[in-house]
Design a protein that fits this description.
alpha/beta; Rossmann fold; 2 domains; five-stranded parallel β-sheet; 15% strand
């Protein structure tokens, strides 16, 4: 298979700084090229922030990190109108969201009001402050992280916000050999590398346009719709995937095909990204939780029951 050379360059560049996480790097690049947002949920210290930083540096984009805390205000995110005494008028002061790639660290540690400040930016690519709308920079991507083991002082993300993330990823602990290599690099002082951009924002914008031109046949579209529909009929789920999930699946599958150097989507592309696109959108019934079912298990059963187009 002949992979897209520019996409491979980005993935390889990330892999130089994030050892042993090639598949996660690939999925992050797929999300970026598809124009989606990324949620990374994992324990502290496995490289969530590093991944976001390397992704931004690899594509030559502006990068902002917002550390969410209980006292973070919506204006810290979106910006605010400040009175200019010299001119006698209000002027807009940009918030942290005004950049190409924005990392929201520990998104579940701030209040629902501040979390909600991200909704318009994630869906419409703009923010509204005091009745005036300001477009975000293009290309734009939001990467959020959260710790799955914290309960005190955290606020669960509402379903409406979870649904706006194209993918949810988990890095996991590194393999033993990868951790040894990481330790050796750290001892030698070469763990932290000055990552250089392999493309610029103009090329990234062009690649995103090329992804949108990847062909999706009627059979593939029907396959995606069928997969999403099956989650709504599953008795183990109290909430299935939304129509937004259907569009996210199509966009991510197009991007996956593009990374692989193809201009058309196959069932394999859909299956590769299916779990990552759907698992954070599904809500299990109480009975399913008691019987220790997981979204991943249910998605796997849905995948097996759906008819795969030839």
């Amino acid at each position: 298979m002949r992979y897209n050379s520019k996409a491979v360059d980005i993935i390889d560049n990330i892999n130089c700084g994030l050892i042993g996480k090639a598949q996660t790097a690939k999925l992050a690049v797929i999300t970026l090229l598809a124009g989606g947002h990324l949620l990374i949920e994992d324990v502290p210290g496995v490289g969530k922030t590093t991944l976001a930083n390397l992704l931004a540096k690899s594509v030559g984009c502006g990068f902002t990190r917002i550390q969410f805390t209980p006292d973070t205000l919506p204006g810290d995110v979106t910006g605010a109108s400040v009175y200019d005494m010299r001119k006698g008028e209000f002027r807009y002061v940009e918030g942290a969201i005004m950049n190409n790639i924005v990392l929201v660290d520990e998104i579940n540690r701030t209040s629902p009001k501040t979390q909600a400040a991200l909704l318009e930016a994630m869906q419409e690519g703009q923010v509204t402050v005091d009745g005036t709308t300001y477009p975000l920079k293009e290309p734009f991507m939001l990467i959020a992280t959260q710790n799955p083991i914290d309960f005190i002082g955290t606020y669960n993300l509402p379903e409406a916000q979870l649904d706006r993330f194209m993918m949810k990823l988990s890095l996991g602990y590194p393999e033993l050999d990868d951790e040894k290599l990481m330790a050796m690099n750290f001892i030698a002082g070469s763990l932290a590398q000055n990552t250089q951009a392999v493309i610029d924002t103009a090329v990234l914008a062009e690649m995103r346009c090329e992804v949108k031109s990847v062909k999706v046949s009627d059979d593939i579209a029907e396959y995606v719709i069928n997969l999403v529909s099956l989650t709504r009929e599953n008795p183990l789920l109290s909430l299935g995937a939304s129509p937004r999930a259907t569009l996210a699946l199509i966009s991510a599958a197009r991007s996956a095909a593009y990374v692989k150097g193809r201009d058309f989507v196959t069932p394999d592309d859909v299956q590769e990204i299916l779990t990552h696109v759907l698992r954070h959108r599904l809500i299990l019934t109480v009975e399913a939780k008691i019987s220790k079912n997981t979204p991943e298990n249910i998605i796997e059963s849905v995948k097996k029951s759906a008819k795969v187009p030839m």
